[in-house]
Design goal:
The chain is an alpha+beta fold. It has helices at 11-18, 40-59, 122-134, 181-184, and strands at 25-28, 31-34, 63-67, 71-74, 79-81, 85-89, 111-115, 139-144, 149-153, 159-162, 167-169, 178-180.
Amino acid sequence: MIKVVASDPTAEELEAILSHPNAFYEIVDGEIVEKPQMSAFSRLIARRLFKALDEIATAQRLGTAVHEWMLVLDPARPLKRQPDVAFVSFERWPVDREIPEEGEWETIPDLAVEILSPRDLGRKTARKIREYFRYGVKQVWIIQPETREIYVYESPKRILVLDEEDDLDGGEIVRGFRLPVAELFRRTVS
């Protein structure tokens, strides 16, 4: 378990956190905050979604999909989030612009996806959603494996709820992306 550390951690505290083999964390207002580990099923969902987004983004030359990358939303605050899946368009990060070799990626994704675990707290998720929109994310998808629903946030107040009878659609953000929700929640690995 990674603990919350003050914004001015000692070198030893920082090294212990960052070298942990299962280090999933975010930086919120300069503090290192543990990000709950995803279940095997949630990881399968993330893999499927990343793969589907990446295939269409590559084929259509729209941008790039990433999976569990640390993104710097506000370097001054500092605020660094690690969405489970994200999409960054070539409009925001041109195809010929190099990704940093070291450190985090200082960019705002067009789409941020969070897959909830039973340990995720509603207030923390609501805070993330507000922050994503405040910094320019165009859409946020909150995936709830327990209820097999997807909450598509077009703004903090405009939400579309999808279930297994629906298709998840990339709309104007990831044009051409369409995935049956039932397929995303399928429990087999094939």
